[in-house]
Design goal:
Layout lengths: L1 E3 L19 E5 L1 E4 L2 E4 L3 E3 L5 E2 L2 E8 L5 E7 L3 E5 L2 E4 L3 E12 L5 E5 L11 E8 L8 H4 L3 E6 L5 E5 L12 E9 L8 E2 L17 E3 L11 E2 L10 E5 L2 E5 L1 E3 L4 E3 L2 E4 L12 E4 L15 E2 L4 E6 L2 E6 L4 E5 L11 E2 L9 E4 L6 E4 L15 E4 L20 E4 L6 E6 L4 E5 L2 E9 L3 E9 L9 E4 L2 E6 L2 E5 L3 E3 L5 H5 L11 E5 L4 E6 L9 E6 L10 E4 L8 E3 L8 E6 L8 E2 L5 E7 L5 E3 L2 E3 L3 E5 L2 E2 L1 E5 L2 E7 L8 E7 L2 E5 L2 E8 L10 E7 L6 E7 L1 E8 L5 E4 L3 E6 L4
Amino acid sequence: MLQKLGFLPGFNKQVTSTGAEGQWTGGDNVRFRYGSPEKIGGWSQLGATNLTGAARAIHHFDDNAGIKFAAIGTNRILYAYSGGTYYDIHPIRTTLTGATFTSTSSSKTVTVTCTGAHGLQDDDIVLFDSVTGLSGSTYTNATFEDVKYMVTSVPTTTTFTITAALAESGTPLSGSGSASVLCYYTVGPAQQVGGFGWGTGLWSGTVAGPATTTLASTINDSVTDIPLTDTSQFPATGEIRIGTEDISYTSNNTTTNILSGGAREVNGTTKAAHSGGVTVTNISEFVAWGEASSADFTIDPGLWVLDNFGTKLIALIYNGRCFEWDAAAANATSTRATLIANAPTASRHVLVSTPDRHLVFFGTETTVGTQSSQDAMFIRFSDQENIDGTDAYTVTAENTAGTQRLAAGSKIMGAIRGRDAIYVWTDTALFLMTFVGAPFTFSFQQIGSNCGLIGKNACVEVDGTAFWMSENGFFRYDGQLESMDCLVEDFVYDNLNSTPRDLINVGLNNLFGEVTWFYPEAGSNVNTQSVTYSYLDSTAKRPIWFVNASSLFIRTTWQDSAVFGLPHGTQYDAGTDTSFDVIGNTDGTTVYYEHETGVNYLLGGTEYAIPANITSGDYDITQKVIRGAATSLADLRGDGEFIMRVSRVVPDFISQTGNTVVQLDLRDYPNDSSASSSLGPFTITTSTKKIDTRARARAVALTISNTALDTNWKLGTFRLDIHPGGRR
């Protein structure tokens, strides 16, 4: 007889497939709406180009004329997006004049010599301007004029190298030309890594001026005897850097000036051939970024915190300075963000309080302008409606500026605006920061402990309720603190890499009532998984959660539909360095997407299919008993005592576009492999009425999937024609 297959919404991964009868156990690129699973919506690339680095913050706002802006902060550059175009609005740390260029035959490496100390680090971004005097060589003024490059290496305090798009094929430059060098503020690395890092000195490594020399002759990518011009200032054993390759050695012959007995491509670098005359740097005396460290610590990634104060974008470099950019200014997109005068210079977080309009810094300086005074638990807020005045952050009897140090926890992790207060999380606790007016301006109330925030971007507020991910589970607060029941909790936390916790990012999709956390799984330093809570359809007795491991729908940042009408997200590709605006980029790229558009995804002008699938738990049967007597009818409430015969599958879709695939996974015992005993796949068209089968098993699970372009589906109620088939 035909039996309806009813399934509860959401995934249950806390039990086995056998224990999840009548439930879904997993899937990819699906969501639940009104209790039924369906394929997620598509997405389209915004702009035809990839951004440099990994996007770590996104913020939408509009100006007084209604022009919409998206601010996107990567670990290298701050962009503004509007009208389909990206604008570089990154602040400039300093501008150096009179720089000259030196190139080497058959090499892409160009050495730039400055008239003074540049303060640059490996992988920093520079922009050349006012370039003159370069002609008659492979490189002309146009090669560098108004072009951004990533710094390849920093041989000395006054020189740095870049990697040109083309190798020198003519007469090499030798201290030629003149240019201004616009040095971008450093944001930080793309990834958050534990047990590796900066050592005790600067981000790029040096704790003192390293010894440098030049390569005496050209070497290939395999020799381990390295001829230098002078090795007298190098230690007996150690490491050197040539270009982007690190090389170790165990012997220093200061008579022949040869380093030997070592290895190539150490510290995760890539071996390469090097031309005579290139700079060689001693890196033996310090721990460089990416090298192993004996210390137990974590490198913070390059992050931004973004908000808006009216038409002004507020942009904070994590643990650094804060900038502003006025979208309403004349020719705004041709200007750059600038430092907020008199503001703190080292902070973990910032936001604008509303409606009172104070600029609030979290984990900031106890003495404004003194970075060494940064206190991870200290809060400082500006005078009302005053973010850059002389006394904006000085507490006086005439203004509303103030400070507060929180007591519970070791560091402030994050903060967001709520309906009536600001939620402030430390690593262990939750506080409410409420505007109360003079004389205290804000009150602070601890409302929970052992519920801290796992990462700075792992919290969101919607309709008066805050949701967040902690070290020990998911929480909500709507006037009452609650630990959220989650049927995928073990799946998430048992497979979570908590070291790169600041890369965890939560996204609100208010069009479908979903909160999604994107997180890195064990063994990965980038986001690879997501878990979603359906807050509109969930109830106290039946919370709806589902996960997604498909790399297609993994995002580093997310912004809901409030400004642009549709949600936006960013995807990072660490293996692709071709960006539209930086030559020599080695830090991966970001694609910016608009979501809930169609049923495919659009990338680089080409549409691709979004494969989606969902799998149920196992159904089993026993014989139906009527008035105490066994019958030949099947009872789905059974415990697998009887073999079932499945003779027919009747598909049912609420909606379907294109073809869908159905598969029956058959098992006699829970530990059987379904792959060796599956029925199908069967292709279901919009006109398919039934599928005739000859299946026998103690348990059957249902899988629905699609892999083709232009396919879409929302599941109805499937039926199986099931009969008992005996105990053997």
